[in-house]
C-alpha cells in the first residue's frame, strides 16, 4: 500500500496583510454566532437516496430527513423549548441503522447519560430503545453503537455497562422492539471491543484479569489487546503495553481480509503512525503513513463498498491528508480544484460509493455542503448551514510557534480582528480543556470569530500535554497542572506582548473545563498579567476532583490513571494543595466571571463551583456568576448560549475595551 497523493492546505497569512484591509468588518449579532445551524451532522443513508441532518425547530435541535430525488423534507422529532421536560431537549447525535430507520440520542439536560430512540425516516414508529440516567454521575449507564450490522436490518450491535460500570458487555439490540440479547460477556477487565467486517466481536482491549484479587495500580495501567481468529475461537493475547510506560497502541479497524488490523502506534518512534498489524504473531507490518511532527491514525477512512483504505487525515498546524486510493486521489484533486483555498472533505458516502457528501470550508468560512453523483459526474450545491455568515467579514486563524522558558516549542493559533493592523490589541487568552490529548485545531470556530468580531485578538495555546504532538510532548505534562503547563500559557502571553500584538494593559484569560482551571491558575499565579478572567465550568480544587473520582469504587482504573496523570491524593497532597487555585484567592486582583451548569457530570457544581463561590463571598474580589439549572459541562441550549455570550460581550468590553452590539440577542432559557 502506498500513499499516492499528499495534500495539505498552506495559507500564507500575515498580520500585515490583515492590516491592509480597508474597512472594518461588519458587526454581527451575538445570535448570529451562537444560534443553531440550519443543518448539522448531515449523513447520507446507506443506499444514498436520503439525507438526514440535525436542524432547528422551536429553539431545539431536531432530526430531519430529505428524499434526494425530489428534495422533499420531513421533521422526525418535535423537541421544543416550550414543551414538557422530556421534550425540552436537543438531539445530540444520530446515525442510520438501515435505509428505513434512524437511531438518535438525547441526554437529560447536560448529564451526558444518553437515551437512545429509533424512528422511521418518515417520523413514524418512534420508540425508546434505552433509557439513560436522570441523575448526575461521572460514568453514567450507557448503550453505545459498536456495529451497524449491515446484513441484519433489524438489529445493531451495542456495548452496555449496566452490569459493570467500566467494563461493558456486548449486546444485539432489536431496533423495533428494544430487546437486547447479550452476545459477549465482559470477564471484568475489557475496556473496549472491536468487530470485524462481518459484525463478529474479534478484538478487545483491556487490562490484566483481576478476578479474585485486587489489582495494583501498575497492573491496572497495563494495556492488553486480545484477538480471536474466529467468533467461536478462544481469545489470545495479541499485544501488551502500558498506558504511561509503553508505546501507544490503538486498534483502528480490521483490514479487508478480516485478518490483519490497522493500528496507530508509536512503537520505536515518538509520534503515532498508521501500520498494519498481524494479531496472530503480534507483529507490526507495513508502515502506511507517518509524520515525524504529528500523531496519525484516527483519521483513516475505509471504503464502505470493499473495505479498501481511501485516505488518512490529521493536523499538525493545518489540515493534512494522504490519499491511499488512486480513484479517490483523482476525485480529491478535482474537488480541491473546484474549491481552492478551502479544506475539502468527503464526510459521508453511500455504501456503493455512488453518492458522496462534500464539506468545503476554512477558518473564515463556516462551510458549504455539496453532493457528488458519480454516475452523472456532477458536484452540485446542497446546503450552507450558516448562510448568514459572510466569510469576507471573518478573521484568519494563523498558526504560531514560540519557545517556553525551558526551551520547549509551543504551538498555537492567533486570530486578530479583521481590519486591524495586528498591533497593540486587547487580547483574550483562551486555553482549551482536557487537558491531555485534547488540542485546539485550525478551522472555523464561532467563539473565536465572535471575539475577533468584537475587536479582540484571540490566542489559543496548545500547551504541553495537548494532543497530536507525539509521546514526549505528552510525557512532560504528567502531573504538571499549574506548573510547566501553566508556564506555557504565561510564556505565550509574554510572547504576544513582546511581539507587539497585545496591549499589556488589556489582556483577559477565558477558558472552560481545564481551560477554566488554567484561567484560575493564571489569575492566582501571575495576577499582574490579566485585567479580567472568565472561569467556565472549570476545576478550582484538584483534590476535590480526585476525591470525586475516588467516590466511584468500581472505577479503580480511572483512579489509577488519575494518580499517574494528575497526582496521588496522599503522596502528592502538598503539591495538589499548592496548585489548586481555590487555596490562593487572596492573590486575585481582577474581576472574575464564574459560569457553571448545575448538571455537570465532569466538574461537579457542588464540589467545584459552590466551594469557590462560598470563598469568594468572604473577599473583596469583584465577581459575577451565571448558573443554569438544566445545563451540564458547557451550555448546549441555544437560548442559554446566546445569553451567555451576550453577558461576556459586556464583561470583556467593560474591562479591556472591545466593542458591544445593539444587535445582541437576549433571552436565555
Could you characterize the architecture of this molecule?
The protein is built from 13 helices and 36 strands. A hairpin with a 5-residue loop joins strand 2 (40-44) and strand 3 (50-57). It has an eight-stranded mixed β-sheet with strand order 29-30-32-31-33-34-35-36, sandwiched between helices. The longest helix is centred in the last third of the chain and has 19 residues, at 638-656. It has a domain at 392-541 and 580-656: 3-Layer(aba) Sandwich (Rossmann fold). Mean pLDDT is 93; it is low at 1-22 and 663-669. The chain is α+β, with helices and mostly antiparallel strands and 669 residues long.
What's a concise summary of this model?
18% of the residues lie in helices and 32% in strands. With 669 residues, the chain is α+β, with helices and mostly antiparallel strands.
- By CATH's scheme, which homologous superfamily of the domain at 392-541 and 580-656 applies? Alpha/Beta hydrolase fold, catalytic domain
Q: What is the number of E strands?
A: 36
Query: Helix share of residues?
Result: 10-25%
Shape type: globular
Radius of gyration: 25 Å
Largest sheet: 8 strands, mixed
Termini separation comes to 53 Å
CATH topology of the domain at 392-541 and 580-656: Rossmann fold
Q: Give the second-level CATH assignment, the architecture of the domain at 392-541 and 580-656.
A: 3-Layer(aba) Sandwich
Low-confidence segments: 1-22, 663-669
Please give the count of helices: 13
Strand content: 25-35%
Can you identify the CATH class of the domain at 392-541 and 580-656?
Answer: Alpha Beta
The main sheet orders its strands as 29-30-32-31-33-34-35-36
State mean pLDDT (0 to 100 scale): 93
Overall structural class, as computed from helix and strand content, comes to alpha+beta
Amino acid at each position: 500500500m502506498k500513499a499516492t497523493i499528499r495534500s495539505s492546505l498552506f495559507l500564507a497569512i500575515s498580520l500585515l496583510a490583515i492590516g491592509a484591509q480597508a474597512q472594518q468588518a461588519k458587526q454581527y449579532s451575538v445570535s448570529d454566532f451562537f444560534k443553531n445551524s440550519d443543518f448539522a451532522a448531515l449523513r447520507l443513508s446507506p443506499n444514498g437516496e436520503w439525507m438526514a441532518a440535525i436542524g432547528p425547530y422551536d429553539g431545539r435541535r431536531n432530526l430531519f430527513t430529505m428524499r434526494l430525488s425530489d428534495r422533499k423534507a420531513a421533521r422526525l422529532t418535535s423537541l421544543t423549548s416550550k414543551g414538557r421536560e422530556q421534550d425540552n431537549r436537543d438531539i445530540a447525535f444520530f446515525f442510520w441503522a438501515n435505509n428505513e430507520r434512524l437511531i438518535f440520542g438525547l441526554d437529560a439536560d447536560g448529564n451526558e447519560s444518553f437515551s437512545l430512540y429509533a424512528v422511521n425516516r418518515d417520523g413514524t414508529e418512534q420508540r425508546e430503545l434505552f433509557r439513560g440516567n436522570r441523575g448526575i454521575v461521572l460514568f453514567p449507564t450507557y448503550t453505545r453503537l459498536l456495529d451497524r450490522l449491515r446484513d441484519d436490518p433489524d438489529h445493531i450491535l451495542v456495548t452496555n455497562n449496566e452490569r459493570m460500570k467500566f467494563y461493558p458487555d456486548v449486546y444485539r439490540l432489536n431496533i423495533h422492539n428494544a430487546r437486547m440479547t447479550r452476545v459477549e460477556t465482559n470477564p471484568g477487565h475489557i475496556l473496549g471491543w472491536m468487530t470485524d467486517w462481518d459484525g463478529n466481536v474479534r478484538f478487545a482491549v483491556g487490562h490484566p484479569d483481576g478476578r479474585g484479587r485486587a489489582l495494583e495500580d501498575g497492573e491496572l495501567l497495563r494495556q492488553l489487546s486480545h484477538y480471536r481468529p474466529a467468533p467461536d475461537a478462544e481469545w489470545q493475547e495479541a499485544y501488551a503495553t502500558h498506558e504511561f510506560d509503553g508505546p501507544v497502541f490503538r486498534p483502528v479497524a480490521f483490514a479487508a481480509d478480516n485478518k490483519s488490523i490497522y493500528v496507530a502506534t508509536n512503537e520505536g518512534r515518538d509520534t503515532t503512525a498508521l501500520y498494519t498489524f498481524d494479531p496472530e504473531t503480534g507483529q507490526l507490518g507495513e508502515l502506511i503513513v507517518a509524520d515525524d511532527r504529528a500523531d496519525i491514525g484516527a483519521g483513516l477512512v475505509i471504503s464502505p463498498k470493499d473495505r479498501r483504505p481511501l485516505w488518512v487525515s490529521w493536523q499538525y498546524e493545518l489540515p493534512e491528508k494522504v490519499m491511499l486510493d488512486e480513484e479517490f486521489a483523482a476525485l480529491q484533486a478535482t474537488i480541491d480544484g473546484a474549491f481552492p483555498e478551502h479544506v475539502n472533505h468527503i464526510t459521508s458516502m453511500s455504501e456503493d460509493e455512488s453518492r458522496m457528501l462534500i464539506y468545503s470550508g476554512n477558518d473564515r468560512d463556516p462551510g458549504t455542503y455539496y453532493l457528488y453523483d458519480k454516475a452523472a459526474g456532477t458536484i452540485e450545491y446542497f446546503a450552507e448551514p450558516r448562510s448568514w455568515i459572510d466569510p469576507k467579514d471573518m478573521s484568519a486563524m494563523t498558526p504560531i510557534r514560540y519557545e517556553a522558558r525551558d526551551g520547549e516549542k509551543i504551538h498555537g493559533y492567533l486570530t486578530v480582528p479583521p481590519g486591524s493592523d495586528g498591533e497593540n490589541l486587547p487580547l483574550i487568552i483562551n486555553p482549551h480543556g482536557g487537558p491531555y490529548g485534547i488540542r485546539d485545531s485550525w478551522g472555523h470556530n464561532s467563539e473565536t470569530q465572535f471575539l475577533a468580531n468584537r475587536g479582540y485578538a484571540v490566542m489559543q495555546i496548545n500547551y504541553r500535554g495537548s494532543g497530536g504532538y507525539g509521546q514526549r510532548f505528552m510525557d512532560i505534562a504528567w502531573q504538571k497542572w499549574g506548573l510547566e503547563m501553566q508556564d506555557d500559557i504565561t510564556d505565550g502571553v509574554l510572547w504576544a506582548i513582546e511581539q507587539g500584538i497585545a496591549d499589556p494593559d488589556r489582556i483577559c484569560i477565558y477558558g472552560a473545563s481545564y481551560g477554566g482551571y488554567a484561567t484560575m491558575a493564571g489569575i492566582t499565579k501571575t495576577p499582574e498579567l490579566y485585567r479580567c478572567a472568565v472561569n467556565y465550568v472549570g476545576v478550582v480544587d484538584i483534590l476535590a476532583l480526585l476525591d470525586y473520582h475516588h467516590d466511584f469504587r468500581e472505577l479503580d482504573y480511572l483512579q489509577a490513571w488519575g494518580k499517574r496523570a494528575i497526582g496521588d491524593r496522599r503522596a502528592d497532597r502538598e503539591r495538589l494543595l499548592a496548585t489548586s487555585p481555590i487555596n490562593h484567592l487572596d492573590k486575585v486582583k481582577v474581576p472574575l466571571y464564574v459560569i457553571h451548569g448545575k448538571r455537570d457530570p465532569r466538574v461537579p457544581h457542588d464540589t467545584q463551583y459552590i466551594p469557590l463561590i462560598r470563598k469568594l463571598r468572604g473577599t473583596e474580589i469583584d465577581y459575577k456568576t451565571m448558573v443554569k439549572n438544566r445545563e451540564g459541562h458547557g451550555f448546549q441550549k441555544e437560548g442559554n448560549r446566546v445569553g451567555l455570550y451576550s453577558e461576556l460581550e459586556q464583561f470583556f468590553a467593560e474591562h479591556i475595551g472591545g466593542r458591544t452590539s445593539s444587535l445582541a440577542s437576549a433571552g436565555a432559557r
